[in-house]
Fold this sequence. Notes:
- By secondary structure, this protein is α+β, with helices and mostly antiparallel strands.
- Helices cover 23% and strands 36% of the residues.
- The chain starts with a strand and ends with a helix.
- The longest helix is centred in the C-terminal third of the chain and has 13 residues, at 166-178.
- The chain has helices spanning 15-25, 41-47, 100-109, 166-178; strands spanning 2-11, 29-36, 53-61, 64-73, 89-97, 113-114, 119-121, 124-130, 136-142.
- Strands 1, 2, 3, 4, 5, 6, 7, 8 and 9 form a nine-stranded mixed β-sheet that branches.
- The protein has a single domain (2-149), classed as 2,3-Dihydroxybiphenyl 1,2-Dioxygenase, domain 1.
- It is built from four helices and nine strands, in the order βαβαβββαββββα.
Amino acid sequence: xxxxxxxxxxxxxxxxxxxxxxxxxxxxxxxxxxxxxxxxxxxxxxxxxxxxxxxxxxxxxxxxxxxxxxxxxxxxxxxxxxxxxxxxxxxxxxxxxxxxxxxxxxxxxxxxxxxxxxxxxxxxxxxxxxxxxxxxxxxxxxxxxxxxxxxxxxxxxxxxxxxxxxxxxxxxxxxxxxxx
Length: 180
């Protein structure tokens, strides 16, 4: 079962500069950070690269995360149509799931292409696949990294706790549409 979008990842030129922007300018909160060195085969299998190395920071706001990556290997290239997971710009959307292995089986049967089977790395089981247009979609099951788990209060939020509901959006749109 898919629970929702967990994070969007962006490969950046300078991690410190980008963290400062998202944290200090946009108001995101740093949740976690880590990385891996060349010679981490689990990471290579997940991202579909050889001899990859990167540092990352996970930032959070509202109901989602932004994950900023700075790859040191392979050397990133500027954004292009054939973008790789380490290239600068938006790299993938991550869907939070409760059974990544079950999703791998289900989606493989449906024809989705993956870099490989789910891998256990840094407290999650994860895999990258491609949508029909070649965009990277990650499926992640948080196993043992509480800072990355989706906050429970985001599920089944009572209507009275929502800042704006569908009706108020529809009413304000209709009101604006009636004005000359």
